[in-house]
Design brief:
mainly beta, five-stranded mixed beta sheet, 12 strands, 40% strand, globular
């Protein structure tokens, strides 16, 4: 499922849907003015949001395999930490992380962080 939202001011949180809509060890894509954000739910029921482009060749991280606190890119097997956005292992690179919170069963992204990072 893909959700389209506008970029919010730095202090504003944007509701992007029900947290339960993302199954454990899977993701959904949120389209923003700056680009696609992948929102992940781990097997431990934690939520993370990162840019949806692998730093290697731009692969869609939302289509990767979620394991532990990481995702493996479906194109070339680069492993990205969902917490830090940094690559793990011998590969070097990183993607932007976006703040996520869950309140009353709803997922909110701090998309203002993306606007500030782009400035």
């Amino acid at each position: 499922m893909t959700v389209a939202v506008a970029t919010a001011p730095a202090a504003e949180w944007v509701d992007v849907g029900a947290a339960a809509d993302i199954l454990p060890r899977s993701a959904r894509v949120v389209r923003t003015a700056r680009g696609d954000v992948a929102v992940f739910r781990t097997a431990a029921d934690t939520y993370h949001a990162i840019d949806n482009r692998c730093p290697h060749r731009g692969g869609p991280l939302s289509e990767g395999i979620v394991h532990g606190d990481a995702v493996t890119c479906p194109l070339h097997n680069w492993v990205i930490s969902l917490s830090t956005g940094r690559t793990l292992g011998a590969d070097e690179g990183c993607v932007a992380t976006i703040p996520v919170k869950v309140e009353a069963g709803r997922l909110y992204l701090g998309l203002g962080a993306l606007a500030a990072a782009a400035a």
